[in-house]
């Protein structure tokens, strides 16, 4: 498999609870060597979509893993590993024993357990009971369990929830490393700042529908087009004409302050200099995934 090859193809996923439509025609691909960020507000349908993809709940549409439905694979754990909230098991079971039990069910040798405990940094916690694990340790244990069968696809649902900054950083670097190994990684989250640092591609879900799919580079480009430049200058009318001729729009926010859209700060500064208008203040916010998401959300609610 080459980087960019689609390992998972989900098409037309749908799900209703009574008369309420939870998912409506959700389609997405997960590609080898990439982290796909599945973003949306709480209640947007991310978890339901993941459950339908994995066959944990019934729904409409279909999902192919390596070209076949998951049930058609003799050992699903060697195709996809899922972390849906830490590690699931009896709280009194010790971590190593629990992972060995899960491994035995998938014909995975015990040596793989110790290898993964070292990989996720839990060798020293191997004898702890599951109920004694911290939230961050439980997430690492869940990842180790998901990787027992060495699957090419890894799916994580809100893995950073409640984690401290150190654990979040570890998670980000670990998942980037898994993608570098050629795995297709799907991470759902509503933490947009973290997703901006992690994902190669973004799928935006709103009210059960995919409203945007793009690479992170495209996201940043679209977000940059929406960002505004703030400034202070003594002659706003003259500056407004100069910027208007250059394709921008100046909106006063005070006697000498304004917001400019349609131009970046370099172009604003250049046009102001050419017009002979001094600038007392010039500032431009960096583009962010949050800007992109909020812009998409505004469009979604406007057209609905």
Question: How is this fold's topology laid out?
Answer:
Layout: E1 6-17, E2 20-31, E3 35-39, H1 46-53, E4 60-65, E5 80-83, H2 95-105, H3 110-119, H4 135-146, E6 153-157, H5 165-180, E7 184-189, H6 192-198, E8 201-206, E9 209-215, H7 216-226, E10 229-232, H8 236-245, E11 249-252, E12 257-261, H9 265-275, E13 281-284, H10 289-303
Parallel strand pairs: 3-7, 3-8, 5-6, 6-7
Antiparallel strand pairs: 1-2, 1-4, 8-9, 10-12, 10-13, 11-12
Features:
304 residues; elongated; four-stranded antiparallel sheet; alpha/beta; disordered C terminus; six-stranded mixed sheet; ATP-binding; 10 helices
Report on the structure:
The chain is α/β, with parallel strands linked by helices and 304 residues long. Helix content is 37%, strand content 26%. The strands form 3 sheets. The chain has a 6-stranded mixed β-sheet with strand order 5-6-7-3-8-9, with helices on both faces. Strands 11-12-10-13 form a 4-stranded antiparallel β-sheet, covered by helices on one side. Strands 2-1-4 form a 3-stranded antiparallel β-sheet, covered by helices on one side. Helix 7 crosses helix 10.
Provide a brief overview of the structure.
The chain has ten helices and 13 strands.
